[in-house]
UniProtKB/TrEMBL annotation:
Full protein name: L-threonine 3-dehydrogenase
PANTHER family the record matches: L-THREONINE 3-DEHYDROGENASE, L-THREONINE 3-DEHYDROGENASE, MITOCHONDRIAL
GO biological process: L-threonine catabolic process
Region forming the signal peptide: none
Pfam family, one: Epimerase
Length: 316
């Protein structure tokens, strides 16, 4: 049985991953940590919780040691748009937090997971069906952090034998905890606005394709990769994973199947649009499928039906 520590447990992925891991491995075997207290997060509160600033290496080590963890899931990070607004903070938090988490994992012999992102690609990367191994020259601070992070995780595996594993997540769509400061956030906001206002104004331009995935598939992918037979892994970190390549009009059309009067307008944000245009239109998840059996259950229509049902229950 695993004993897992999660950083960023109150974030978009963390809040749901904490609950899912507690279902699978037992509540007391999942130590949730975040820089703030878990008010209004009943699932995170329903088990061990520690306050932790991931840039504090000593505190991180002490918490991990106290709970005798054997698995480290490092999620705390600034997303792309926030990182572009505060690049130095992003460097310190995203890279400082990661190297601290890898060091703790090396010292305590933990298996290690951290997500990379489609943000690790840049304008010179092939745009369609982006291969697993390809040009990575991102033009954002977030992307620079993600590429460096992918390399650092490979380094800790080769140099120290830390069992590092990771995926490149696309935009993640969920109804539990909203994302904050990402470029793909429009694909979550649109569902909230569809329910509350019947209309949405997108900051991402019509025709801008990006990869997305529904949160249940993202959680399943993390667990499957961490449980995968290591002898099958040719790559260890930064596996391309995706469920759909979509643009705002695709989401609007999927919503209109349930809310025919839904309308979509545009007021494009040049900063987030430029980030989106520097990313791939679609990525190729073949390596993840072949090496550890990645699969996504939700396409756009199935995800939309579930998002609208769940959000109606939550918001109305
Ligand atoms: C973001 O938009 O910054 C994230 C990501 C794709 O990594 N959702």
């Amino acid at each position: 049985m695993k004993k897992i520590i999660i950083t960023g447990a109150l974030g978009q992925i963390g809040s749901e991953l904490t609950a899912k891991l507690r279902d699978v491995y037992g509540a007391h075997n999942v130590i949730a940590t975040d820089i703030r207290m878990p008010k209004d997060h009943p699932t995170v509160q329903a088990g061990p919780f520690e306050l932790l600033d991931v840039t504090d290496a000593k505190a991180m080590y002490e918490i991990a040691k106290k709970h005798q963890v054997d698995t480290f899931m490092h999620l705390a990070a600034l997303l792309s748009a926030t990182a572009e607004a505060k690049p130095l903070l992003a460097w310190n938090l995203n890279m400082g937090g990661l190297v601290n988490a890898l060091e703790v994992s090396r010292e305590l012999g933990c298996q290690f997971f951290t997500p990379s992102s489609i943000g690790a690609f840049g304008p010179s990367t092939p745009k369609d069906q982006t291969p697993q191994d390809t040009i990575q020259r991102p033009t954002t601070m977030y992307g620079v952090n993600k590429v460096a992070g992918e390399l650092l995780c490979d380094y800790y595996y080769h140099k120290f034998g830390v069992d590092t594993r990771g995926v490149r997540f696309p935009g993640l769509i969920s109804y539990v905890t909203p994302p904050g400061g990402g470029t793909t956030d429009y694909a979550v906001e649109i569902y909230y606005k569809a329910i509350l206002d019947g209309t949405y104004t997108s900051y991402i331009a019509k025709g801008t394709y990006m990869d997305m995935m529904y949160m249940p598939d993202a959680l399943q992918a993390i667990i499957k990769l961490m449980e995968a037979d290591p002898s099958r892994l040719k790559h260890r970190n930064a596996f391309n994973v995706t469920a759909m390549s979509i643009e705002p009009e695709d989401v609007a059309r999927a919503i209109q199947k349930h809310i025919p009067s839904f309308t979509l307008q545009y007021d494009v944000d040049p900063v987030r649009q430029a980030i989106a245009e520097s990313w791939p239109n679609s990525i190729d998840p073949t390596a993840a499928k072949e090496e550890w059996g990645f699969e996504a259950e939700y396409d756009l229509d199935k995800m939309t039906a579930d998002m609208l049902t769940q959000l109606k229950g939550k918001l109305l």
